[in-house]
Amino acid sequence: MIDYAKIGYEAYREASGGTTFDGRPMPTWEELGQLPHGARTRRLWGEAAAAMISNFVRHPAATIQIEVPGSGRESALMVHSEMNEEQWEDTLNKLDAVVKSAHAAAKGAPRG
């Protein structure tokens, strides 16, 4: 199973240089689970991921565009509504790869 809450949290952590909006260090996803309010934070990231995926599923015959500010690059992925479970899983894995590639491009890393 793909943990989209973890993917989102870790992408945010990486994009922010490992700091919160006010400059405090961010724990890893695993460390977060050990903190007093970590379970709540993980749950909220899960709710955010579920909302994004829910929106994605409700509007499946659309182009998803991901723009990383400052990168000068935009990625797009076209998905279709009449897919079986395996095709959805493949599409979500491709979307994950697009997000990772966009983050890497924003940091100037080679695209993978």
What's the quick description here?
By secondary structure, the chain is mostly helical. It has helices at 4-15, 29-32, 38-58, 85-106, and strands spanning 63-67, 74-78.
Write structural notes for this entry.
- By secondary structure, this protein is mainly α.
- The chain has helices spanning 4-15, 29-32, 38-58, 85-106; strands at 63-67, 74-78.
- The protein contains 4 helices and 2 strands; from the N terminus they run αααββα.
- It has a two-stranded antiparallel ribbon with strand order 1-2.
Percent helix range: 40-55%
Helix/strand/pairing category: mainly alpha
**Total beta strand runs:** 2
Mean pLDDT: 74
Q: Which shape, going by the Cα principal axes?
A: globular
What is the element layout, followed by pairings?
Layout: H1 4-15, H2 29-32, H3 38-58, E1 63-67, E2 74-78, H4 85-106
Antiparallel strand pairs: 1-2
Helix pairs in contact: 1-3
